[in-house]
Amino acid sequence: MKNQLEKIRQAAKNALDSFETKEQLEEARIKYLGKKGELTAILKQMGKLSADERPVIGQLANEIRADIEEKIILKAKELKEKEIQLEINAMPEFDISLPASLERGSYHPITLVQRDCERIFKSMGFHVEDYSEVVSDYECFEAVNIPKHHPARDMQDTYYLENGQLLKSHTSAAQNAIYLKYKDSLINDGVPIKAIFPGRCFRNEATDACHENTFFQMEGVMVDKNISISNLIYFMKSMLSEVFKKDVKVRLRPGFFPFVEPGFELDISCLICGGDGCPSCKNSGWLELCPCGMIHPEVLRMGGIDPEEYTGFAFGLGLTRLAMMKYGIKDIRDLNSGNLKALSQFTDDE
Ligand code: FA5
Predict the structure, then answer these.
(1) How many angstroms is it from 25 CA to the middle of ligand 1?
(2) Are 266 and 290 in contact (CB under 8 A)?
């Protein structure tokens, strides 16, 4: 019986080595391992063996079964790989000189206004900074003078991670890092801090035609000796007339933000309705576009800058709303919709 088993093992090995198809493999599995297969037939005769022989033969039969099963699996893998290779070989070669069959893509309107603003501010000596979307509570709130339990937090509810970090609710979350990064060259070398930092912001709030839960802002700061509100107004006006390539009506009104003192709201006359009132401007004729103000002494101090010696302004431009105004997009939700028909009509005119 031992000889018979070894013969089966050898025959199965020879057969499997020579097989070329999945069907042959399946036949071999039935022939050697199936209920009516050769191995099962031998095992059925085990009863005729002596008590001493039975465990020895039983163990050998199991070994041979495992051996054949393993060979079948390996062979199946080998055949599958050959099949894939044949499919690859049959594919037409990729010809990079062929003309593209897809239509040309376009930049997202927010990318376009962001680049436009970056170009304008760079030409006025600002440099562009990048910042994380996931920040700490300290960066987003405490370092901009919004301590825990301050009522101003209610206006900027956001999304919290289990580790206590959060998705930044405004680009002001990068202010502290910027001051710390550039304070030495300001203090030691007299180089003013002039930076903008665009970025995606998140707020846990109801959406409507002018509010999204995910939107873009662009923060800007300038710190030096003798910086005043006049500097702030000059830069804001220059930026807006460059972006819109025409005079736009703006108004400045008092606004409260714990990180500026005094603080302002810079509104722009709604370009969708010409100031008459529509859903995009909540029927007021004005759209809140760019809150700003003189950086609060406490915020400068937390950034390692002495507010007795230096002053500065900061603004938080709503880039998404700027894109709406510039391109006449009536509903902010279209911008995150992924609707190519709506989004692909703008081109990069750079
Ligand atoms: C802020 O986020 C302040 N960090 C701005 C700031 C910076 C003030 C520096 C002073 C100095 P506010 O929450 O108002 O402020 O948002 C600023 C701008 O972002 C708004 O004017 C608006 O244009 C835009 N914005 C705010 N919330 C949304 C929203 N849900 N959807 C779309 N745009 C929004």
Answers:
(1) 67
(2) yes
335 vs 326: CA distance, rounded Å: 13
Q: Which atom of ligand 1 is nearest to the CA of 211?
A: 31
Q: Residue 164 carries which side chain, given as an amino acid letter?
A: G
Residues 6+ apart with CB under 8 A from 260: 292, 293, 294, 295, 296, 313, 314
What's the Rg (C-alpha) of the chain? 36
Cα of 317 from ligand 1 centre, angstroms: 7
Q: Is any atom of ligand 1 closer than 6 Å to the C-beta of 296?
A: no
AA identity, residue 54 = R
Give, using CA atoms, the residue closest to atom 22 of ligand 1.
318
Over residues 206-223, the pLDDT tens digits come to 999 889 999 999 999 999
Q: Which among 340, 335, 315 is positioned nearest to 323, based on CA atoms?
A: 335
Distance CA 87, CA 84 (A): 5
User: What are phi and psi for residue 26, nearest 5 degrees?
Assistant: -65, -40
Q: What is the H or E stretch that residue 78 is in? A: helix 53-90
Which secondary-structure segment (H or E) carries 193? strand 193-202
pLDDT reading at 298 higher than 80? yes
* 318 close to ligand 1 (CB < 6 Angstrom): yes
Residues 55-108 pLDDT 10s:
888 888 889 889 988 988 998 999 999 989 988 888 877 777 777 666 677 889
Contacts of 66 (CB under 8 A, 6+ apart): none
Phi, psi for residue 48 in degrees, rounded to 5 = -80, -10
Q: How do beta strands 127-128 and 214-224 pair?
A: unpaired
Q: What is the whole-number distance in angstroms between the Cα of residue 225 and the centre of ligand 1?
A: 27
- How far, in Å, is the centroid of ligand 1 from the Cα of 43? 80
